[in-house]
Amino acid sequence: MSNINIRPRRELRIATIAAAAAVALGLCSAGTANADTVVPLPGGAITKTLADGTEVTVTMTDESATVSPSMGSTPLHRNVWVSGSAKVEISGGSGAEGGSIEPGYIVGCQLALGGETGADAGIGAEWKGAAEPAAGGAGTVSIGPGEAASFPILDLEEADDFGGESHSGEHSFEGASGSVTWADSTMGVEGCAGYAQARSYVNVTVDTENVMSTVTLWGQPFSIG
Predict the structure, then answer these.
(1) CB-side exposure of 219: number of CA atoms within 13 Å?
(2) CATH class held by domain 2-223
(3) d(Cα 33, Cα 124) in Å, to the nearest integer?
(4) Would the pTM of this model clear 0.70, i.e. be above it?
(5) Looking at residues 33-42, what average pLDDT do you find?
(6) Which of 14, 93, 97, 100 could make an S-S bridge to 53, C-beta 3.0–4.6 Å?
(7) For 191, how many CA atoms within 13 A lie in the half-sphere containing its CB?
(8) Which one, of 52, 3, 19, 12, lies nearest residue 180 by Cα?
């Protein structure tokens, strides 16, 4: 089993990230960003059977978010620390050769990111038609009203074929199981002049002797103010 633990350094916090406007969301279970607010999240699990009979189970546990006020006190900035653990187990079929685990978050500004968890939860009709700006540098995403962005948790470095640095948001594993744990990963959101939501996802790509397939587990949406 291949495991990885991610614990980013606190210096990734950005001094200019400010508190969000306190707008409650009916679909979410979280509080607002007027003070540090710890949001426990339920995680989830899914099991999918691939075409060759291979059974893939993805679970997410110990998921939480801490919505933190910033020093600037402007409604355009938010800061969130996220934690969780994802695990994949593969059985049956033609035999597991390994795969990869990619955890991350979808962040939306004035968008509904859906309300259910699991494999078929999706991310809401509004998101599907929204713009998809890329994540910004230094642990931030920049989005405006009606926009959403993906925020990868992992940033794994390795040498490429030419001796330079290569970065990846996927943790590779061999065999029938693998896991990833992240703790207090900083996620800054800039530019959203309205309510903002986030929800976790875990993309697991599995290789067997006959099939390559990706299984996605969605977490529960939560408000970040």
Answers:
(1) 34
(2) mainly beta
(3) 24
(4) yes
(5) 80
(6) 93
(7) 16
(8) 3
